[in-house]
C-alpha cells in the first residue's frame, strides 16, 4: 500500500542524454538514446519502492508512448500546483502476483514517475492492514492511499480523483470532542450538516467504540450508497465514510463492515491509556521521554538483568526474574484478592496479604512450594512488615472495639516464618473515617495497587522491637515501643510511607511534600518535592527516592436515568464518574535535592514503584483509566467488547538513564528481592511450585 504525501516522486538519473528525433512524439518518431526497456525497469523499481512491497512478482506489463501538458503527467492532485509545459513519456501497466494492475506514468528519461491508479483483477478483493500516524484499518490491496500532510484526512481509492462509479473510503481525524459526546451525536451532526438522512434502524455498533449507519446521495447520473461510521476514543473523534454505486453496494458493504471491525486508533494499542509527552527533566538536559501515545512505550534494546522479583499476574502471585517475566505462579486461585507483596530482608521469603481470606501468607521462594498461612484476621488497610532478621512477619488486626473517641482498637501480631502460632506484639488506636468512595470503574484496581485513596498506610518493624505505624488514615505517624507500649507521635500531618532498605530512615508524605524521618539522628527533613505525592519508593542504596503524582486532566460523568439499569449491570454502580489523570514518575536525589521527571503519561494512576537492587532502573505499574470502557458503553458495545475495553494494570520497566519505558506485562505490584545479581549471572534453580489442595491462596 502506497502513501502519497505528494503524487510527484522524482527519480533523477544523472547524465542521461535524451535525443529527440523528428517532429511528433506520438507514433514513436521520438526515441530515447537509452533503450525504453531500461526506463521501464526504472519505473518498475520506483513503483515497488512506493508500494513498500519489494517481494511482488511481475506477471505481465504493457506500455505506450504519450505526452502531457504539465508535470502532473495526467494525474493531478487536488490543490497541487504544477509547471506547465509538454512532458513526453510512457504509460505503464504492471500486473503483479497480488492480482493488482497499477498504471504508472513516467517521463521519457526516467526523471519523474506518477502512480495514477490501481485496479483489482482477482475474483475477490484481498484486504490488508494500512497504518497511519493516527489509526489503522483494513483496506483492499488494490486501493491506493492519499493522505494530507499530517495524515488527518486520508482517501482510500483506486485513483486520486474519486469516480462516482467506483468504491472508496475516506477517514478523517476530527480531533477532540467535548466530554460525553457520543458517536450517535456525531452522526446526527453529520447528517444535519450535509442535508441527508439515515434510517435510525440501520444504526449499529461497530468495533469497540464506534457507531455506523447507512445513507445515500446522488453522484453525477447514478445513486451512491454510503456507510457512515463515527468513533470516539479517549475524547478524540474519527469519521469513516465508505461508498459504492447503489447496484454494487451490497457486495461491498460486507467488506466495509469487515474493514471497520479492524479500525484502531493510535490510542488503541497495547498501552492505550498512556499518552506520552516529552518529559523535560528538571535539572537535567532536555529529555526525550516518549511514552509513545497510543502505543506501548518502548525503550531502546537493552539486556535485562536476571534480578529476582515478584508481581501479581492475572490475579496470582508470580515469582521470576526481570528478564523472565511473568515467571512461575505460586498461587492458583486468581479469584482471590492479594495485596502488599514484600520480600524478607534476605530475599528468600515473600509475604503478602490475602484480602479475601484476611490471612498473611508466606512463600519460600527458593523451595517454590505453595504459600502457608502465618497470620489470621489481617486488616486489609495495612501491609505486612518483616522483622529485621526475617524470622517473623507482623500484621495488624482490627479488634472490632473502639475507644471513647471512636478510634478503632488495633493490635499488632507476628507470625513465624518457620510456622507455629502467631504472637500478639502490641496495640494502638487508629482514627479517622477515610473510606475511599468508588465512583470510577478503575478505582478498585488503583486502590488495590496504591492503597486506599492512593496511599499505603505505614507498618514498619525497626530494630529494638519498635514499629512505625499510621495512627490515622488522614494523617498521623507514630513510633510504638513494644517494651512499654508507649506511642510517640512523629508527625500528625504525615500520611503512610515506607522504610528505607537499611531500616534507618522512613519516607512519608504530607500535603506539602515529602518528609524523611531519620531514626539515628531522630531528625525530620521536609523536602520541597512531592506535593500531593502518592506511590513512594527508595533507591536500593538509599541515595534517592521516587514518587508518583496524578492530576485530573479530563473527566466524564454518566448519569442519564435512562441508562441506569444498563449502567449498573456494566459498572456495578450508578452514576459513574470517569477520570483521566496526567501521571508523573519523579526521582529526588537526597544528596543535593535535585528532582528529575523520569516519565509522564496518562491513566488512573501509578500504583506501585520498585527500584532495582543494582540501580539499573525502576519498575512501576500503571492502572489504566476507564475512559475507553465508558466510550464503549456509550457506543452500545456487547459484553465481549465491554470486557475488552475494561481498564487493567500494566507493568513497565524504565532503565536508568533512559526516557522510554519497556512494557513487561499486564500485571501489577512489582517488588524486587533485596539482592543484586551481576550481569550474566543466573538465579539459583528452584523447583516448580507444588500445589497443596485447599492451601493455594
Could you outline the blueprint of secondary structure elements for this entry?
Layout: E1 9-10, H1 36-51, E2 58-70, E3 84-96, E4 100-107, E5 112-120, E6 127-131, E7 135-140, E8 144-147, E9 153-157, E10 168-176, H2 183-194, E11 204-206, E12 210-219, E13 222-233, E14 236-245, H3 246-261, E15 264-265, E16 308-313, E17 316-321, E18 328-329, E19 338-343, E20 349-354, E21 359-364, E22 372-376, E23 385-386, E24 392-402, E25 408-416, E26 423-430, H4 443-450, E27 459-462, E28 466-470, E29 477-481, E30 487-491, E31 495-499, E32 505-510, E33 513-518, E34 523-526, E35 536-538, E36 544-558, H5 564-571, E37 576-589, E38 595-603, E39 605-611, E40 617-623, H6 627-634, H7 639-645, E41 649-655, E42 662-665, E43 667-672
Antiparallel strand pairs: 1-5, 2-3, 3-4, 4-5, 6-7, 7-15, 8-9, 9-10, 10-14, 11-12, 12-13, 13-14, 16-17, 16-43, 17-18, 19-20, 20-21, 21-22, 23-24, 24-25, 25-26, 27-28, 28-29, 29-30, 31-32, 32-33, 33-34, 35-36, 36-37, 37-38, 39-40, 40-41, 41-42
Helix pairs in contact: 6-7
Side-by-side strand order of the widest sheet: 8-9-10-14-13-12-11
Per DSSP, what share of the residues sits in E-state strands of 2 or more residues?
35-45%
The backbone outline, from C-alpha atoms, is elongated
How large is the count of helical segments?
7
Let me know the average pLDDT.
84
Alpha-beta content class: mainly beta
Amino acid at each position: 500500500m502506497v502513501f502519497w504525501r505528494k503524487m510527484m516522486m522524482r527519480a533523477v538519473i544523472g547524465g542521461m542524454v535524451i535525443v529527440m528525433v523528428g517532429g511528433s512524439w506520438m507514433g514513436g518518431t521520438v526515441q530515447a538514446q537509452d533503450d525504453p526497456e531500461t526506463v521501464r525497469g526504472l519505473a518498475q523499481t520506483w513503483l515497488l519502492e512506493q508500494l513498500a512491497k519489494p517481494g511482488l512478482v511481475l506477471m505481465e506489463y504493457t506500455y505506450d508512448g504519450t505526452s502531457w501538458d504539465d508535470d502532473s503527467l495526467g494525474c493531478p492532485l487536488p490543490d497541487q500546483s504544477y509547471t506547465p509545459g509538454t512532458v513526453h513519456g510512457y504509460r505503464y501497466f504492471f500486473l503483479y502476483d497480488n492480482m493488482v494492475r497499477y498504471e504508472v506514468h513516467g517521463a521519457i528519461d526516467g526523471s519523474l514517475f506518477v502512480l495514477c491508479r490501481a485496479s483489482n483483477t482477482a475474483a475477490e478483493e484481498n484486504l490488508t492492514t494500512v497504518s497511519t500516524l493516527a489509526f489503522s484499518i483494513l483496506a483492499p490491496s488494490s486501493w491506493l492511499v492519499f493522505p494530507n500532510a499530517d495524515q488527518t484526512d486520508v482517501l482510500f481509492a483506486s485513483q486520486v480523483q474519486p469516480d462516482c462509479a467506483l468504491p472508496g473510503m475516506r477517514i478523517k481525524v476530527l480531533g477532540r470532542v467535548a466530554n460525553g459526546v457520543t458517536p450517535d451525536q456525531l452522526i446526527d451532526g453529520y447528517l444535519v450538516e450535509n442535508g441527508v438522512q439515515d434510517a435510525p434502524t440501520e444504526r449499529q455498533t461497530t468495533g469497540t467504540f464506534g457507531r455506523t449507519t447507512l445513507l445515500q446521495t446522488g453522484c453525477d447520473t447514478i445513486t451512491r450508497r454510503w456507510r457512515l461510521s463515527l468513533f470516539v476514543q479517549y475524547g478524540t473523534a474519527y469519521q469513516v465514510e465508505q461508498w459504492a454505486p447503489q447496484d454494487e453496494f451490497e457486495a461491498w458493504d460486507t467488506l466495509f463492515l469487515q474493514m471497520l471491525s479492524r479500525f484502531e486508533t493510535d490510542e488503541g494499542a497495547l498501552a492505550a491509556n498512556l499518552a506520552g509527552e516529552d518529559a523535560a527533566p528538571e535539572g537535567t538536559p532536555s529529555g526525550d521521554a516518549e511514552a509513545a501515545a497510543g502505543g506501548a512505550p518502548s525503550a531502546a534494546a537493552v539486556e535485562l538483568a536476571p534480578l529476582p522479583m515478584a508481581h501479581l499476574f492475572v490475579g496470582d502471585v508470580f515469582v521470576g526474574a526481570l528478564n523472565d517475566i511473568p515467571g512461575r505462579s505460586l498461587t492458583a486461585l486468581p479469584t482471590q484478592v492479594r495485596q502488599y507483596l514484600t520480600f524478607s530482608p534476605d530475599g528468600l521469603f515473600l509475604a503478602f496479604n490475602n484480602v479475601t481470606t484476611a490471612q498473611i501468607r508466606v512463600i519460600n521462594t527458593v523451595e517454590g512450594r505453595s504459600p502457608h498461612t502465618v497470620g489470621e484476621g489481617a486488616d486489609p488497610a495495612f501491609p505486612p512488615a518483616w522483622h529485621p532478621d526475617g524470622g517473623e512477619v507482623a500484621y495488624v488486626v482490627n479488634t472490632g472495639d473502639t475507644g471513647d473517641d471512636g478510634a478503632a482498637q488495633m493490635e499488632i501480631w507476628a507470625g513465624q516464618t518457620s510456622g507455629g502460632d502467631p504472637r500478639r506484639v502490641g496495640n494502638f488506636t487508629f482514627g479517622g473515617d477515610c473510606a475511599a468512595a468508588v465512583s470510577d470503574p478503575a478505582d478498585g484496581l488503583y486502590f488495590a495497587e496504591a492503597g486506599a485513596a492512593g496511599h499505603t498506610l505505614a507498618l514498619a518493624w525497626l530494630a529494638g522491637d519498635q514499629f512505625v505505624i499510621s495512627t490515622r488514615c488522614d494523617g498521623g505517624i507514630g513510633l510504638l515501643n513494644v517494651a512499654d507500649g508507649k506511642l510517640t507521635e512523629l508527625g500528625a500531618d504525615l500520611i503512610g510511607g515506607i522504610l528505607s532498605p537499611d531500616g534507618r530512615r522512613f519516607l512519608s508524605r504530607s500535603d506539602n511534600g515529602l518528609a524523611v524521618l531519620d531514626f539515628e539522628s531522630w531528625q525530620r527533613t521536609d523536602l520541597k518535592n512531592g506535593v500531593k505525592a502518592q506511590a513512594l519508593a527508595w533507591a536500593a542504596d538509599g541515595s534517592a527516592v521516587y514518587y508518583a503524582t496524578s492530576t485530573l486532566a479530563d473527566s466524564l460523568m454518566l448519569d442519564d436515568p435512562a441508562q441506569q439499569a444498563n449502567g449498573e449491570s456494566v459498572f456495578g454502580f450508578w452514576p459513574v464518574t470517569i477520570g483521566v489523570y496526567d501521571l508523573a514518575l519523579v526521582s529526588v536525589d537526597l544528596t543535593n535535592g535535585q528532582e528529575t521527571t523520569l516519565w509522564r503519561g496518562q491513566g488512573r494512576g501509578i500504583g506501585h514503584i520498585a527500584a532495582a537492587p543494582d540501580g539499573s532502573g525502576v519498575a512501576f505499574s500503571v492502572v489504566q483509566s476507564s475512559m475507553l470502557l465508558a466510550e464503549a458503553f456509550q457506543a452500545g458495545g456487547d459484553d465481549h467488547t465491554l470486557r475488552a475495553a475494561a481498564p487493567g494494570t500494566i507493568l513497565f520497566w524504565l532503565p536508568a538513564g533512559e526516557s522510554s519505558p519497556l512494557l513487561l506485562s499486564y500485571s501489577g505490584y512489582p517488588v524486587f528481592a533485596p539482592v543484586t545479581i551481576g550481569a550474566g549471572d543466573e538465579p539459583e534453580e528452584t523447583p516448580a511450585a507444588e500445589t497443596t489442595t485447599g492451601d493455594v491462596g
